[in-house]
Amino acid sequence: MAHTKIQDERSERAKRKNSNIDQQLEGGELGPEQHGQIISHFGRQVDVEALEGEHRGEIFRCHMRTNLSSLVTGDRVIWRAGAEHGVVVATEERQSVLQRPNNHGELKPVAANIDHIVITIAVEPMPHYNLIDRYLVAAEVSGIEPVLLVNKQDLLNDDNREYIEGMIRLYTDIGYKVLQVSTTREDGLDELKAILNGRISVFVGQSGVGKSSLINALLPGVDLKVGALSEATRKGTHTTTTARLFHFPDGGDLIDSPGIREFALWHIEKDRIIEGFTEFAPFLGLCKFRDCQHEQEPHCAIKQAIEDQKSVLKE
Ligand code: GDP
Ligand code: ZN
């Protein structure tokens, strides 16, 4: 009972607030419509960066017009400045969207308009193919270009060199861009900056590979705590932490949150997984059975392709 009452009061309050927003919109107290981008959001409020006009680059706290579907960091919007708060009046079409399932299994957008998923691995902890594939599949399924970044090149030695170089060769042969950097030695960072320039990127990867260190090197002054961040997120608050958009001083943007860094571990539908392995694309749909699971079925084009590749490698 008490619970319902609280909810009623909440929705009453929300209604009053919405009619305030609508009054503001009708009352002509707001500035002209202009383009902006969501930098961060907090429930029914968002921080919008002005993309034009005399306040370009400045950030404004805004309410959202009632009829707007959920906005996320990275969304481009039309907004109007107000005396205290601005109002977002429309959203623009998304180029891409990262989605994750909520507790009820419904996919919800987390961030929009990302161009690049930088899959960060390191010489140590030793990277495993199955985890990298998971990241690649998740990126492909989201329609966002993945880039492989191999950090801690300074730790290459005679024990791990062959394994790491073989891995780099394999993913390069499939057609992926692979970058080799050392954050501590600042090797390869210029090449990385060139790739980030002009695009919106996210960094994903298992903990300990150096994501915070890299981001700190690229975003001086922001100070995402090295090591400590992953400690804090293990305490279970990470799913509610909002994603935030940062500008790299040398060009390009970063969208980051502890939740986004775990991106590949989100749910992907089984049918879509095979589509994420782009090297199998030429063979999809060629199996004898339309519902082939590529396991025990005869005349499976996928298993055949693997056999053919094995015999090519043997020759
Ligand atoms: P995250 O969990 O992915 O954010 O990784 P952190 O940035 O917290 O880094 C994990 C550890 O790796 C820290 O002790 C860093 O100092 C170290 N580290 C980061 N980059 C490099 C690198 O290029 N070389 C070496 N040797 N260590 C690094
Ligand atoms: Zn098959």
Account of the protein in words:
Helices cover 32% and strands 23% of the residues. By secondary structure, the protein is of the alpha/beta class. It has 3 domains: 90 residues, Nucleic acid-binding proteins (OB fold (Dihydrolipoamide Acetyltransferase, E2P), Beta Barrel), CATH 2.40.50; 160 residues, 3-Layer(aba) Sandwich (Rossmann fold); 30 residues, no CATH class. Helix 2 crosses helix 8. The radius of gyration is 23 Å and the shape is globular. Zinc ion binds next to helix 9. The site of guanosine-5'-diphosphate has 17 residues, from helix 5.
Terminus-to-terminus distance: 74 Å
Order of helices and strands: HEEEEEEEEHEHEHEHHEEHHH
Q: Which structural class should the secondary elements be placed in?
A: alpha/beta
The poorly predicted ranges are 225-240
CATH topology of the largest domain: Rossmann fold
Question: How many structural domains in the coordinates?
Answer: 3
Lateral strand order in the biggest sheet: 10-9-8-11-13-12
What is the helix content? 25-40%
Count of DSSP strands:
13
**Strand fraction:** 15-25%
Q: Which small-molecule species are bound to the chains here? A: guanosine-5'-diphosphate, zinc ion
Summarize the main sheet. Answer: 6 strands, mixed
Enumerate how many helices there are, as a single number.
9
The CATH superfamily name of the largest domain is: P-loop containing nucleotide triphosphate hydrolases
CATH secondary-structure class of the largest domain: Alpha Beta
From the alpha-carbon coordinates, what is the Rg to the nearest angstrom?
23 Å
